[in-house]
Amino acid sequence: MTAPKFNDVNVGDQIPELKLPAINRTTLALYCGASGDHNPIHIDIDFARKARMPDVFAHGMLSAAYLGRLMTNWVPQSQLRSYSVRFTGITQLGHVPTCTGTITEKFEANGEKLVRVAIRCGNQYGEEKLVGEAVVALA
């Protein structure tokens, strides 16, 4: 991976988007096993319906992981200085997560050249599911 250089990026630039396959029951089961999060709202349709949901839905942290992958597809993990997200919607079965990022600030701190990136995970309908920001060091 060749990380971008500080002088080659500008405020307003988009980082390469990450589009994932549609969320399905297999994705949710695999994430349960990988994360250890076996909350039945994500895998048991009867439980979900008792909670007044139409069906199971994706873990919020799955979308947070997708946003993490967005960033580490752009720069090595060692260049990530901060990462934060806020959940804003539920990712239902059949939703196609798409993660995007926009550079919002360039600055220097502690001897490093840094960029702040506004990150977002939405679906194929343009509905926002997570928002956040990351700060990365660039050479």
What does it look like?
- The protein is α+β, with helices and mostly antiparallel strands and 139 residues long.
- The longest helix is centred in the middle third of the chain and has 15 residues, at 60-74.
- Strands 1-3-4-5-2 form a five-stranded antiparallel β-sheet, with helices on one face.
- The protein starts with 13 loop residues before the first strand and ends with a strand.
- A hairpin with a 5-residue loop joins strand 4 and strand 5.
- The protein is built from three helices and five strands, in the order βαααββββ.
Give me some keywords for this one.
single chain; 139 residues; alpha+beta; 5-stranded antiparallel sheet; 5 strands; 23% helix; 34% strand; HotDog_dom_sf; MaoC family dehydratase; MaoC-like_dom; Fatty_acid_synthase
Low-pLDDT stretches = none
Count of individual beta strands: 5
Strand portion: 25-35%
Radius of gyration from the alpha-carbon trace, in angstroms: 17 Å
Cα distance spanning the termini = 14 Å
Counting H and I runs of at least 4 residues, what is the number of helices? 3
Structural class: alpha+beta
Biggest sheet, in brief? Answer: 5 strands, antiparallel
Shape: elongated
Q: Write down the overall mean pLDDT.
A: 97
Element pattern in H and E: EHHHEEEE
The strand order across the widest sheet is 1-3-4-5-2
Percentage of helical residues? 10-25%
Task: Summarize the model shown.
With 139 residues, the protein is α+β, with helices and mostly antiparallel strands. It has three helices and five strands.
